[in-house]
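User: Reviewer 2 asked us to show a designed sequence for the structure in our supplementary figure. I'm pasting the structure tokens here. Could you produce the per-position amino acids so we can include them in the response letter?
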């Protein structure tokens, strides 16, 4: 199971990234858990200073932007 985390305080881009990550996981047929990390202290534990950020299985994959769906899919497929 993939653990997908969206780091952000709930801004429109954070919500968009969450929706796109979920869509990408569904299109790939992945079993996943989506978690929204909204507390600044928890976000900073990942070393992230700019949101939104995408974390897959504990690894930060994207920071400060909403990548295209194709990029999110490839991030989810990486081991």
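Assistant: Here is a per-position design you can include in the supplement:
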């Amino acid at each position: 199971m993939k653990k997908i985390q969206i780091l952000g305080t709930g801004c429109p881009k954070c919500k968009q990234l969450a929706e796109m990550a979920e869509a990408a996981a569904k299109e790939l047929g992945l079993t996943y858990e989506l978690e929204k990390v909204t507390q600044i202290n928890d976000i900073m534990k990942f070393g992230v200073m700019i949101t939104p950020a995408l974390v897959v299985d504990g690894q930060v994959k994207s920071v400060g932007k909403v990548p295209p769906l194709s990029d999110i899919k490839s991030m989810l497929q990486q081991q």
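For the response letter, you might also mention the following. The chain has one domain: 2-74. The two ends are 12 Å apart (CA to CA).
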